[in-house]
Input
Amino acid sequence: RALNEDGTLHAVKSRDWTSGFYPGMLWHLYAVNQDPELEKAARAWTAFIEKEKYDAHTHDLGFKLYCSFGEGYKLTQDEHYRDVIVTASETLIQRYNDTVGCIRSWDFNAENWDFPVIIDNMMNLEMLFAATRFTDNIAFYKVANQHALTTMKNHFRGDYGSYHVIDYNPTTGEVRKRNTHQGYSDDSAWARGQAWGLHGFATAYRETGNPAFLDRAKEIA
Output
């Protein structure tokens, strides 16, 4: 995540939502210069977080495992990496509620939210689309596509600023609350959330060809 004062790495545990970013960056560097030492490091840091493919208590599996194993697979075509992505996708869709039409984000703060969905979750859909390509299992595609459609409907104001958290009634699918948990206020535009949405809808367009997703990415931009 950072450097300590003595120059050593300040790392995070594998369950941290950012754990896939460093191995992903190592894979990007390896793609540029083909340095075998970088590949060795990328493989080691990628392997470190493999066990997270079974963690059904988080929506961040795409952040963790597609940023790492996904980038590694693009460069190496390692079949084990592909299998990890599929397993992680099977784990992730356990959090999908068909009535809501979304993947649940958080399990905490149950006293505040019944079924919270955050804009960040758009970043986890790319892994599901990849899993469909790897397996021909359309279930992954359907979950990712519907999550994007539901998010497009409920997460945005008239000026295309995004709410951070939409809380749903898991039984009826109705919106209960619109909040911003990590930004300035419920009605503010949260820069990081805008970026999640822009990237997520551009990806959804690339994978589905639905022009509404491209339009939303442009509107967010």
About this structure: The two ends are 27 Å apart (CA to CA). Helices lie at 21-33, 36-48, 61-76, 79-92, 125-135, 138-154, 191-208, 211-220.
